[in-house]
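User: Hey, quick favor. My workstation is busy. Could you predict this chain's structure for me?
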Amino acid sequence: MSELFDFGRVGVIYGGNSAEREVSLQSGQAVYEALLRAGVDAVPVVVEDNPLTTIQSVDMDRAMLVLHGPGDEDGSYQAVLELLGIPYTGSGVMASALAMDKWRCKKLWRGIDLPTAEFAILDENSDWAAALESLGGAVMVKPNGEGSSIGMRRAETPEQLQDAWQHAAIYGDVMAERWIDGAEYSVSILNGRALAPIRLETDNGFYDYEAKYLSDDTRYFSPCGLHGGEVHQLQQLALQAFNSIGCSGWGRVDVMRNSDGRFQVLEVNTIPGMTDHSLVPKAAAAEGMNMEQLVVEILRTSMN
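Assistant: No problem, here it is.
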């Protein structure tokens, strides 16, 4: 473990001001404790207001970012760290900003022929019935720039669609996406490699905030039930989606399989959750990597 000394002093930056602050606090604490167990000289940097002042007040040689949500995961902190000349984990400014913008990601994927479900941006002037019909009669409504399934609802009628839009609009722009009636998979990306996919099952109707972070009934399958060729296809699709928006280091790609058996990319997460319910640690564990090894491997990506 002597190579760990090459990292210098690592500031684990977490907290933030988004709706995902609580998840970030849990993730950041888990990462910080794992780094200490691995022998890394780590210091917690809990940010809220005045992040620039907070970061400047800490003596660090590099940063491990464990922030989630808009304003925190969208390139803002990456820009601050670049301004200060501090190397950091994960994707850069542009890729982080693009990954948080579901609509623009999906526009890009459509442009390069990556499979992703039909979608539309909603606003107060939307024709709810026409929007629903154009997207197949059932949709998932979601804030365009949030994560952790915050603000998401299914809609099958014009009234439900308007209600779902109003629920999501408190978080900003809103997108509706054709409902996919099939299995959901998560593919973690680490240093240019797709880890073993995980298939998710929940009784909640979809993989919502409760299923992600609170429920002990969510079911995770790895091996994921696909045969070898399908696993490779899923991993390659995840890598394509990740690389297409310029992401680097580590992350997670969420994919669903529709009723025709075709994979559809949902979104890319540039700083996924790292709690005891989170998918990246589960994917790493499926490949024989413990939490300490995982965080050190993520930290290595800050040296590229």
